[in-house]
Backbone:
């Protein structure tokens, strides 16, 4: 990552708003390959615990299964937050859901009401507004985690160019300042950190806020040529999605085994 942490960086107000919390360290750069890649190099380093890496633009921003995350400069909030404490490896699956809940709460506070889509997206008006990809470094039974988050904030001319399917932006619902939004998300992280010790409670809260059971999903399993429609019933104990087809067949969709089509 190129030089950041300068006194005049655009997220200085965010750091000031978080003063005294576990998430007060903000490192900013204009351009990097990937904030997640930068965070991986710091995972497990005590001095980096609680640090948030923010970039104006990324050359290799990625989502699940290596898909590209495209965001034009000035349009998105792109960051990775290194959690201040390690997470039990058997709770690692819940970090994405936990992050999504924090982002949804923060967006609501800024007048943007979004829907949760399993496993890692937030939608506005049925279109993708935010994607989440967590990275980790496992040491024995503990994992140091970086929560990578990309949020489309401001729609400008050309902001959606090259992005398929077309995304949504916070500004489609309400004007949002990126530094203020980041402060709200980090405040939510700080307030809800204890939840990471109870992954099932995270899953239950996510189910409630996502409107499960009863939500409709179109699912394409890896290796299949045709997608199928199903009704979501619940999350299982490892974060997989239990669904039922119109024919009454039930399937458990693992986190890494399928793509959700909007």
Residues:
């Amino acid at each position: 990552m190129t030089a950041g942490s300068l006194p005049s960086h655009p997220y200085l107000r965010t750091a000031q708003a978080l003063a005294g919390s576990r998430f007060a360290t903000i490192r900013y750069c204009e351009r990097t390959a990937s904030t997640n890649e930068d965070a991986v190099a710091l995972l497990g380093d005590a001095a980096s615990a609680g640090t948030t890496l923010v970039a104006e633009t990324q050359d290799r921003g990625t989502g699940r299964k290596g898909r590209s995350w495209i965001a034009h400069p000035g349009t998105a909030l792109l960051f990775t937050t290194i959690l201040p404490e390690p997470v039990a490896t058997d709770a690692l699956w819940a970090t994405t859901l936990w992050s999504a809940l924090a982002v949804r709460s923060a967006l609501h506070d800024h007048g943007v009401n979004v829907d949760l889509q399993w496993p890692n997206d937030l939608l506005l008006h049925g279109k993708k507004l935010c994607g989440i990809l967590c990275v980790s470094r496992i040491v024995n039974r503990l994992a140091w985690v970086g929560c990578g988050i990309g949020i489309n904030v401001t729609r400008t001319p050309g902001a959606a160019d090259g992005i398929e399917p077309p995304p949504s932006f916070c500004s489609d619902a309400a004007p949002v300042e990126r530094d203020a939004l980041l402060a709200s998300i980090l405040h939510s992280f700080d307030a809800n950190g204890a939840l990471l010790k109870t992954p099932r409670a995270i899953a239950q809260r996510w189910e409630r806020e996502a409107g499960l059971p009863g939500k409709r999903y179109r699912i394409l399993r890896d290796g299949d040529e045709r997608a199928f429609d199903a009704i979501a019933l619940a999350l299982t104990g490892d974060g997989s999605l239990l669904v039922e087809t119109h024919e009454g067949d039930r399937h458990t969709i693992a986190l890494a085994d399928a793509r959700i089509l909007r």
User: Anything to note?
Assistant: The chain has a mean pLDDT of 92.
